Amino acid sequence: MDKKLRVGWFSFTCCEDSTILFIELLNQHYQDWLKKIDFVHARALRRETNGELQKMDVAFVEGAISSDRQEEKLKKIREKTNILIAVGSCACVGSPSNQRNFFNRENLDEIKPILDKFKYKEKVLKLSEVVKVDELIPGCPMNEEIFLRMMEKYLEIS
Ligand code: SF4
């Protein structure tokens, strides 16, 4: 292989269980992936040197979007990556991280001070409501087999 696949892994509003699965999968795949993949962004694997986003071939994104800041960052990720893959149910369809979207008036009034304090959006969004998403890995947490197939697919293409 001439050049390594440049991969990013990002988490927004979620429990990060797909990140844990991803780390678990490294137990079996690390030696192989090390030769073929450059993980340019992955907070679980390496310290980010500065705030600058680097160009990526594939960005895996888990979690839903719940603030303007997150929305901006996701748009920047989209600008920097050729392929953007939504990882897990929260990223693909918004749930279960978007539970407050379905609160009644009384519950919404209760949480309003928190939403205001942390500058959260009125509604929690799935990724495709903010940017173009190329692939979906469903599941809560992500379906491991689909994730591995996706990784193989883009390793073959690169
Ligand atoms: S999809 Fe499930 S496992 Fe993944 S972040 Fe959301 S709640 Fe957690």
In short, what is this structure?
42% of the residues lie in helices and 25% in strands. It contains 5 helices and 7 strands.
Describe the secondary structure blueprint for this structure.
Blueprint (H helix, E strand, L loop, with lengths): L4 E7 L5 H20 E6 L13 E7 L2 E3 H13 E7 H6 L11 H13 L2 E6 L9 E3 L6 H14 L1
Parallel strand pairs: 1-2, 1-3, 3-5, 5-7
Antiparallel strand pairs: 4-6
The structure holds iron/sulfur cluster.
Iron/sulfur cluster binds next to α1 and α3.
Tally the helices: what do you get? 5
What is the ordering of alpha helices and beta strands?
EHEEEHEHHEEH
The CATH superfamily bears the name NADH:ubiquinone oxidoreductase-like, 20kDa subunit
Structural class: alpha/beta
Major β-sheet strand ordering: 2-1-3-5-7
Quick one: biggest sheet?
5 strands, parallel
Arithmetic mean of pLDDT: 95
**Ligand set:** iron/sulfur cluster
Report the sheet-strand fraction: 15-25%
How many whole angstroms does the radius of gyration measure? 16 Å
Distance between the termini: 8 Å
Task: Give me the oligomer status.
Answer: single chain
The CATH topology, please?
Answer: Rossmann fold
Low-confidence stretches: none
Shape: elongated
Helix content: 40-55%
Number of strands: 7
**The CATH C-level class name:** Alpha Beta
